[in-house]
Specification:
- The protein has a single domain (4-108, 128-258), classed as Porin, CATH 2.40.160.
- It is 18% helix and 39% strand.
- It has helices spanning 4-7, 35-50, 145-149, 175-195, and strands at residues 11-12, 18-22, 53-61, 68-79, 83-91, 97-106, 133-134, 152-157, 160-164, 199-200, 205-210, 221-230, 233-242, 245-255, 257-258.
- The model has no long low-confidence stretch (mean pLDDT 94).
Length: 260
């Protein structure tokens, strides 16, 4: 299996700007690159710059990224004794900024790493393999990322849905990148179920706080709960897991756009 950088044909220029090839296989339901993939690229580049452990990311999806070469432009906003903050702009071939992220990273040597507190419990009643429901694209709509990440509904309870995905790379220490994709892909199903066929449901942002760094994550899953839908906005709460390990918690907003 390819490493993360190899999967996206990543290169780093002498000016510190990275390039990644974002092909159609990473496109979601709205015709552009899946937002979680853009967030994962942001985390990856920030890690290469600071060599520290990511603790959080806040991404804003400003416009759709069409398949092609992405320039990932980092900017170190602060490099402290404990924390680093890196700004990331992902720019398309027309020089449009499509995603802006702020990544915070920490030096583990500065922390009291012996402190522990139990995590929340994982989502209950995950489906057995034979009962899982793979995503299926509508007849008139292409969603290429289904073949890439192989998303599956593992459980459903009220306004919450648990979604599992495959990670198409193999590289130690990339659990934060995996959590970004799992989190973003978990947002759509519970919101779409509530609004049904009355609106399209793109999410223009994703904020995550990373709870653990694992060497190996093969099929993470994310539980997304719709906290409220009001005024055309849906607010969701997310937790991302690898088996029994909590990887990240987060929130996202979905804009409910009336169908014509």
């Amino acid at each position: 299996m390819k490493g993360f950088a190899e999967l996206f044909a990543a290169t780093r220029g002498d000016d510190g700007v990275w390039t990644f090839e974002l092909m159609e296989r990473f496109n979601g339901a709205f015709g552009g690159t899946n937002g979680g993939t853009l967030t994962a690229l942001s985390v990856y580049v920030a890690r290469q710059i600071s060599a520290r452990q990511p603790t959080s990311i806040d991404s804003r999806y400003l416009r759709s990224f069409r398949p092609g070469l992405a320039r990932v432009v980092p900017s170190v906003l602060n490099e402290g004794r404990t924390l680093s903050v890196v700004g990331i702009d992902i720019v398309d071939e027309n020089d449009n900024v499509c995603c802006h992220s702020t990544v915070t990273l920490v030096d583990p040597a500065a922390l009291a790493t012996s402190l522990e507190h139990p995590a929340i419990e994982p989502p209950p009643a995950l489906a057995a393999a034979q009962d899982q429901r793979p995503w299926v694209a509508p007849a008139a709509q292409a969603i290429p990322l289904i073949a890439t990440y192989r998303p599956t509904q593992l459980a459903r309870n009220g306004a919450a849905t648990v979604t599992g995905i495959d990670i198409p790379w193999g590289e130690p220490g990339t659990s934060a990148e995996a959590a970004c994709i799992a989190a973003d892909m978990s947002v759509g199903p519970p919101v779409a179920r509530i609004v049904r066929s009355s609106a399209s449901t793109p999410n223009p942002d994703l904020s995550l706080r990373f709870c653990a760094t694992l060497d190996e994550v093969t099929r993470p899953y994310a539980s997304c709960n719709v906290e409220r839908v009001a005024g055309g906005l849906a607010t969701t709460r997310i937790s991302v897991w690898s088996e029994q390990q909590l990887l990240a918690v987060g929130i996202s907003t979905t804009t409910c756009i009336p169908l014509r």
